[in-house]
């Protein structure tokens, strides 16, 4: 019905303001029209979530597992139609789960391969990989922690989650101090960080995580704010000043007009 009405009535009716029909105007404008997008606009919600010590991130009071190696990181999460898709900092998909209905809470969506607790060697390998990212001091601390603590691996997991709240320099300094004094424990590092460092804001944490994924040309030349001196010329008036504006009143000619010249 609508198609027939458009073809026989609306599109052939002459518009008074343009003096032509919509069909004729469309044919005239067709060469200048841009094609429609080949894909629909993505309206999915994108949020950032912190991976806790158990390897889960939380969305609307429900928990979704991610690969165990991402403990302590803040990852982008895309909430699509009926799905939760988790990406790495490099925007590679690392996990996909069915979205838990909004009417439920406390549900844990877990994928078995995300948690290698059944393979101690794999768990140790992942821990060494994460601590190696902190430099030689990270490796030295992990070796001492595993050698002296019965639950060294569990403490290492908690330490990774704790380290995400501080800058890398602060974490390295805390680990270095712990190694020098032989304080190989989570409690010791927590005390050092509490006394000598401040937790960083979440935006700073995201900036540090994404810095390595930026194009090298963007990382090398950091653009800072301009000095206010660069804008001072905008405050200057372009109109020339009238002569005599800054002349003291006693030196102006009109001021001398009524003055007694004195004896000749």
TrEMBL record:
It comes from Urbifossiella limnaea. Residues 216-232, 249-264 have a biased composition (Basic and acidic residues). This is Transposase for insertion sequence element IS21-like C-terminal domain-containing protein. Residues 36-103 form the Transposase for insertion sequence element IS21-like C-terminal domain. InterPro entries: IstA-like_C. Residues 238-248 have a biased composition (Acidic residues). Residues 216-264 are annotated as: Disordered. Transmembrane segments: none annotated.
């Amino acid at each position: 019905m609508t198609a027939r009405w458009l073809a026989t009535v609306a599109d052939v009716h002459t518009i008074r303001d343009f003096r032509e029909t919509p069909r004729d105007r469309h044919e005239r404008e067709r060469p200048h029209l841009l094609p429609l997008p080949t894909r629909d606009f993505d309206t999915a919600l994108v949020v950032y979530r912190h991976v806790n010590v158990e390897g889960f991130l939380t969305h609307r009071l429900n928990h979704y597992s991610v690969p165990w190696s991402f403990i302590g990181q803040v990852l982008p999460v895309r909430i699509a139609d009926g799905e939760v898709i988790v990406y790495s900092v490099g925007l590679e998909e690392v996990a996909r789960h069915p979205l838990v209905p909004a009417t439920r809470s406390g549900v844990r969506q877990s994928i078995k391969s995300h948690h290698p607790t059944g393979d101690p060697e794999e768990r140790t390998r992942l821990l060494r990989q994460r601590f190696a990212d902190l430099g030689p001091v990270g490796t030295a601390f992990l070796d001492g922690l595993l050698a002296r603590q019965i639950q060294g691996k569990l403490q290492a997991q908690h330490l990774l989650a704790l380290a995400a709240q501080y800058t890398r320099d602060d974490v390295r300094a805390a680990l270095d101090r712990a190694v020098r004094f032989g304080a190989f424990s989570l409690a010791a590092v927590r005390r050092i960080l509490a006394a000598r460092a401040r937790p960083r804001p979440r935006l700073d944490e995201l900036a540090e995580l994404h810095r390595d994924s930026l194009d090298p040309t963007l990382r090398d030349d950091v653009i800072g704010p301009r000095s206010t001196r660069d804008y001072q010329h905008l405050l200057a008036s372009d109109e020339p000043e009238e002569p005599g504006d800054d002349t003291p009143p006693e030196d102006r000619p009109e001021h001398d007009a009524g003055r007694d010249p004195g004896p000749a």
